[in-house]
Amino acid sequence: MDRKLIYLIVLLFLSHALSAQTADTTKVVYRDAQVNSNAPLYIVDGEIIKSINNVKPDSILEISILKDQNATSIYGQEAINGVVIITNRRFAITHYQSNFSKLSKKYKNYIRLNNCDDSGLLYVINGVPLDGKSDDIIRKLYDLNKYNIKSVNIIEKGINEESTIQKPLVIITTK
What we know:
Elements: H1 2-23, E1 41-44, E2 47-49, E3 60-66, H2 68-75, E4 83-88, H3 89-103, H4 105-113, E5 122-125, E6 128-129, H5 134-143, E7 149-155, E8 169-174
Parallel strand pairs: 1-4, 5-8
Antiparallel strand pairs: 1-2, 3-4, 5-6, 7-8
Helix pairs in contact: 3-4, 3-5
């Protein structure tokens, strides 16, 4: 009888130890997976993406957030939890340079010859020079609706002896 009791006690301890070990589990969470069904829709540079983990914070020009009907009316049911729209600086620059190049061969040539670097240009919209921080200028140029642009012209620096132009001017006239 004593032997059976000892055997039973040992079995109870073993079963308790084994059941305690099976309760410990490892939870694996994938960074790129949308585990949370409440996650918003992410749009980076016009493309729907699953995760924003690969977006470099220092390359972001602006972030917009759409909620409720504003989101679903544009993006459908995918946007039921809202939309996070991220525009990168390089994308915005490429976008407005492409639009302006279609309207001015001289601008297109300048951009091509300068490897898409327009930092040497001074932009003027409807007679008002754009000044301020670089990101503010990029945002203003990116936000111009290409269908509202009447013309894009470049005036080279020093076109005559009396000229005070230090940088080439990009004169943009809207409708």
